[in-house]
């Protein structure tokens, strides 16, 4: 084949699938499990999932109210609402509580539309509060120091709240129509139709989680890393749904204790499980670079952030001497054998000092050294990352006051 000849589409897909299989074969699964356990414990993801569960239950009615308002505003899309409720809500909730939860939410939402403008404003603020809580949780997992401006976040989340249900309804209704037509023409059985709908629903969950992990954190997340987290979420939700359904069928504890009220605690448990899976999927997406490079986290020893800052400045200084056009986060993580999520907060601090610049080009980020280490005083770095100024340390600070960054770099 000529070098100028582009590979055919099947050949390109075959290469992508082959690369994916090789990645899965070489993936450090044991390190992944250790990372999930460590991050769940150290980042208090169980407590975060509890907070999100509480906020979600409060915001469920506002979210459904907005969804009904969107469908009411577009009568031509009214038929999509049924498809959304039937194939999406019920497929994401265990069978034991799917119908009562969907019916109750729809009833509450219809009653909420009679609250008036002030009441609806409170409900919408509750829905936006849920989105902001999700934003804080995901930015915390990615170690992001500064989230996006509030107005920008609210605008993006409002677009997601209003357009998300409509797009999902259109997708599911179009899929249902296509399957009905194919069944009439090809005589497909009901099992085949159900299987296709399950695949579509699985793909929608993957797409939603992937978009969440790619767009919400205020940092650059590769699509393939977000997709890895999205696949984990979709598979994890399916497993959690079947495991919870199996448990409720075998051990009817909630029905025995709570009776007709059992739907509420079951829903609480399910929403908590959903958020645990989503947060663990975010951990997969965030730590995929370090897992793939097989590099670990540095221990939080005294002065480790100061040491890391000095090493980063040394790497950027070497790159400038060698004539390189800056270094990416992955380049520095590989050179220092350090988790990128540990490097990024220190880099952000060096950027705040105006010692390092970050360049965004074609979806990639490069970091360049802006200062001259030979003439730049090191006092700010010492104050921020090593030893805060105080009367006790004043004599030592006087002795170190003449140090420059060049004196610190190896």
Describe it:
With 410 residues, the protein is mostly helical. The chain has two domains: 28-293, no CATH class; 304-408, Winged helix-like DNA-binding domain superfamily/Winged helix DNA-binding domain (Arc Repressor Mutant, subunit A, Orthogonal Bundle). Helices cover 74% and strands 3% of the residues. The protein contains 17 helices and two strands. It has helices at residues 9-26, 29-42, 45-73, 78-92, 95-112, 116-141, 150-186, 190-215, 223-250, 253-258, 263-293, 304-321, 329-336, 340-352, 379-385, 394-400, 405-408, and strands at 356-361, 364-369. Strands 1-2 form a two-stranded antiparallel ribbon. A hairpin with a 2-residue loop joins strand 1 and strand 2. Helix 3 crosses helix 7, helix 4 crosses helix 7 (150-186) and helix 9 (223-250) runs antiparallel to helix 11 (263-293). It is elongated and about 75 Å long.
Q: How are the strands of the largest sheet arranged? A: 1-2
By DSSP (H or I, 4+ residues per run), the number of helices equals 17
Number of domains: 2
Q: How large is the share of residues in beta strands? A: under 5%
Major β-sheet profile? 2 strands, antiparallel
Structural class: mainly alpha
What is the molecular shape? elongated
Question: What series of H and E elements makes up the topology?
Answer: HHHHHHHHHHHHHHEEHHH
List unreliable stretches of 5+ residues.
1-7
Average the pLDDT over all residues and give the rounded result.
75
Supply Rg. Answer: 26 Å
The total strand number stands at: 2
Helix content: over 70%
What's the oligomerization state? single chain
In whole angstroms, how far apart are the ends?
A: 50 Å
């Amino acid at each position: 084949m000529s070098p100028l000849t582009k590979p055919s589409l099947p050949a390109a897909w075959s290469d992508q699938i082959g690369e994916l299989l090789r990645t899965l074969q070489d993936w450090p699964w044991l390190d992944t499990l250790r990372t999930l356990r460590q991050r769940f414990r150290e980042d208090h993801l169980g407590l975060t999932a509890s907070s999100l569960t509480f906020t979600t239950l409060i915001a469920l009615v506002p979210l459904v109210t907005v969804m009904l308002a969107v469908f009411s505003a577009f009568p031509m899309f009214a038929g999509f609402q049924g498809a959304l409720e039937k194939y999406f809500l019920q497929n994401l909730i265990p069978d034991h509580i799917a119908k009562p939860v969907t019916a109750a939410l729809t009833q509450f939402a219809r009653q909420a539309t009679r609250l008036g403008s002030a009441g609806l404003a409170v409900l919408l603020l509750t829905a936006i509060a849920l989105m902001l809580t999700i934003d804080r949780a995901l930015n915390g997992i990615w170690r992001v120091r500064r989230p996006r401006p509030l107005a920008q976040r609210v605008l993006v989340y409002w677009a997601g709240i209003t357009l998300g249900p409509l797009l999902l309804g259109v997708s599911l209704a179009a899929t249902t129509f296509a399957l009905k037509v194919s069944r009439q023409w090809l005589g497909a059985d009901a099992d085949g139709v159900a299987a296709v709908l399950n695949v579509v629903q699985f793909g929608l969950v993957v797409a939603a989680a992937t978009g969440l992990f790619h767009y919400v954190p205020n940092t650059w997340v590769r699509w393939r890393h977000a997709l890895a987290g999205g696949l984990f979420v979709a598979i994890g939700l399916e497993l959690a749904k079947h495991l919870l359904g199996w448990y409720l069928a075998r051990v009817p504890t909630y029905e025995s204790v709570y009776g007709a009220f059992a739907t509420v605690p079951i829903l609480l448990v399910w929403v908590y499980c959903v958020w645990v899976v989503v947060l663990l999927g975010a951990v997969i997406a965030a730590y995929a670079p370090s897992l793939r490079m097989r590099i670990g986290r540095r221990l939080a020893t005294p002065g480790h952030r100061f040491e890391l800052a000095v090493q980063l400045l040394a790497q950027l200084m070497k790159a400038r001497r060698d004539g390189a056009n800056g270094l990416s986060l992955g380049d520095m993580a590989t050179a220092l054998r350090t988790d990128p999520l540990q490097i990024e907060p220190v880099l952000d601090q060096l950027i705040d000092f105006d010692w390092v610049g970050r360049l965004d080009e074609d979806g990639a980020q490069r970091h360049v050294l802006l200062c001259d280490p030979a003439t730049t005083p090191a006092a700010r770095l010492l104050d921020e990352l090593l030893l805060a100024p105080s009367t006790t340390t004043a004599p030592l600070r006087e002795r170190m006051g003449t140090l420059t960054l060049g004196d610190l770099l190896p």
